[in-house]
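ok so I'm stuck.
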Amino acid sequence: MSAIKVSVIGADGRMGSEVCRAVEAAADTELVGRFDHGDDLGDLAGADVVVEFSVPDASAANVAHCVERGVHVVVGTTGWSEDKLATLRDQVGARPGVGVLIAPNFAIGAILMMSFAQQAARFYESVEVVELHHPDKVDAPSGTAARTASLIGAARREAGLGDVPDATTHDPDGARGARVDGIPVHALRLRGLVAHQEVLFGGTGELLTIRHDSFDRVSFMPGVLEGVRKVADHPGVTVGLEHYLGLA
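replied:
not stuck anymore, here's the structure
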């Protein structure tokens, strides 16, 4: 079989440059295009699949450009709100057969962490999410943390659980963090970190902690390549690599 032709948008960034190396190293993929801020995307260098790792403000337009040209897209950029996803679904609907994967995280361990947290959610009254990243990250909370909280929130509602207990009534400086789908989420930014997250579940007399650590961006590459290989088999918009891995 011929190699999958891949172009990378955001190729000069931390993740994009790592994706370029991974695509070049894999036997079944061929890197045909590198694009970054200000570049004319044009015909995307004839790619079969585009991997998009840019910034939230640019991602929607980049992905729309790919969809309009009938090119499958694997998206690692975060910041995809429900409104943006709805617009994207309309765009993809006009191009039958095109597949778009929006993945908050590509590390296999992180995807398993989210799956385990979703399973545990119905058993515990209390839960909080803590995500830890390098200080150059532009958005908070991380896409992984937001996705984890949403999965936990949905599982709690299905189980008939109420709000997470919290007697706090005075927090003018936001020390209790953000609330995502009713779940407290805390974002830490520290030099030396890459991408880390823990989910803490509390019950009477016990604590369950589920944690994942990415110490190097190479940890995301097996998931990126899996997305590249399978996106053509999943037309439409898919949120979460777990759907390609049989974990959804």
